[in-house]
Recover the amino acids of this structure.
């Protein structure tokens, strides 16, 4: 039977995880590669996901422990209440994800609410195994006595699992690195913050578990004798007491009386628990924390790769394929092909192809860059006819040669004129 006094509180960790997940998922959906929406929904989605996550954590805990709130000496962590079943847990989680998706799309006139709820549920599916791991860790936390060394480690396990999940979930934010920096609420700063917080949590848990193992070993380093509770003798008030948390064995450090019938044995230290089982539990916790830090390192490398010019070029190329003309030129400029344009015919063709796509999609800068290419200044054979053609097409789209801009309405004779950019801005 569950013991609520030992079962960890799930509302706060689920609320924090929900807020981070809502922020990341809304950001992914807001990406120009995925979907166009108002950026303000990212905050609303994160807030709604935090509330839904907290409520989910409360309800999951209630289903796991029921109405019993009294301490029990012996608890079987494997025993479950009839309400502690995945037939309830899974629909609850999917419903919370669907509601968060509905919040994200609620400002779209209603026609996207259905797809938003479906998307929220789909994004929640990968979290079902995570929730299973968290609930397993919470049930396992009932095995150790309150205040013991293992009890503290077991309670930290819930936070460690969720912190590792947050680290992996930040992969949703990979497109935030090459995303347009001018868009509100975009950029990598929140991702760096999530990674920093998760990393600090994982590191502190790992250090705490390592210190717990060291404390357990230190408690058993002195000469101890196995005793029962009734054989521990007269314990001093200052006697050192350590509860390992697992097992009912008692070990004591006893100072013998100097003379028969005149002095009693005094207990100087008491250690309760099974050392082997305790050491095994703490070592597992340390391995779990180390794996979390390994995941942090791998995901951090992925984010570093997403911040490179090669990733930015690929991102802009994908946007170019979706019809964004200005992204075609950006993909060429950030790609390595632009650097080797003069020496590598294949790279030259690739860059020219991107410029042509941008020019065809009404990006005047791409047309002007094509004119520069055919002037022969970048290693491509000079072609005055193509220079004139692309300069004309650029002018039609508002871009003139030599840093000038076509301004409609300023006429000399009956023609629009090109003025210097600085003069035009004034």
């Amino acid at each position: 039977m569950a013991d609520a006094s030992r079962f960890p509180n799930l509302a706060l960790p689920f609320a924090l995880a929900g807020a981070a997940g809502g922020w990341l998922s809304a950001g992914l959906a807001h990406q120009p590669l995925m979907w166009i929406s108002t950026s303000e929904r990212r905050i609303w989605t994160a807030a709604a996901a935090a509330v839904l996550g907290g409520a989910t954590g409360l309800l999951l805990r209630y289903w796991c422990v029921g109405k019993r709130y009294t301490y029990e000496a012996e608890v079987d962590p494997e025993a479950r209440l009839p309400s502690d079943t995945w037939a309830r847990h899974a629909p609850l989680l999917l419903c919370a994800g669907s509601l968060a998706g509905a919040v994200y799309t609620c400002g779209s006139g209603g026609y996207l609410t259905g797809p938003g709820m479906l998307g929220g549920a789909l994004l929640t599916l990968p979290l079902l195994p995570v929730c299973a791991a968290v609930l397993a860790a919470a049930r396992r936390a009932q095995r150790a006595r309150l205040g013991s060394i293992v009890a503290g480690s077991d309670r930290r396990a819930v936070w460690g699992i969720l912190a590792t999940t947050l680290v992996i979930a930040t992969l949703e934010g990979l497109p935030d690195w090459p995303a347009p920096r001018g868009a509100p609420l975009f950029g990598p700063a929140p991702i760096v913050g999530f990674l920093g917080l998760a990393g600090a949590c994982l590191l502190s848990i790992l250090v705490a578990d390592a210190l717990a193992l060291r404390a357990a070993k230190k408690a058993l380093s002195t000469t101890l004798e196995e005793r029962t509770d009734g054989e521990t003798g007269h314990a001093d008030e200052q006697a050192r007491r350590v509860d390992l948390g697992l097992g009912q064995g008692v070990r004591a450090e006893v100072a013998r009386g100097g003379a028969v019938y005149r002095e009693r044995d005094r207990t100087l230290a008491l250690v309760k628990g099974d050392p082997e089982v305790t050491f095994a539990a703490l070592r597992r916790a340390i391995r779990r924390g180390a794996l979390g830090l390994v995941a942090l390192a791998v995901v951090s490398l992925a984010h570093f790769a997403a911040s490179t010019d090669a990733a930015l070029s690929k991102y802009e190329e994908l946007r170019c394929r979706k019809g964004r003309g200005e992204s075609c030129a950006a993909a060429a400029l950030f790609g390595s092909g632009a650097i080797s344009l003069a020496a590598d015919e294949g790279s030259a063709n690739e860059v020219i192809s991107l410029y042509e796509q941008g020019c065809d999609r009404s990006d005047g800068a791409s047309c002007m860059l094509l004119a520069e290419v055919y002037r022969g200044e970048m290693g491509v054979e000079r072609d005055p006819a193509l220079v004139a053609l692309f300069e004309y097409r650029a002018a039609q789209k508002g871009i003139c040669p030599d840093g000038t801009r076509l301004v409609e309405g300023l006429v000399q004779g009956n023609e629009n004129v090109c003025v210097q950019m600085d003069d035009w801005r004034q």
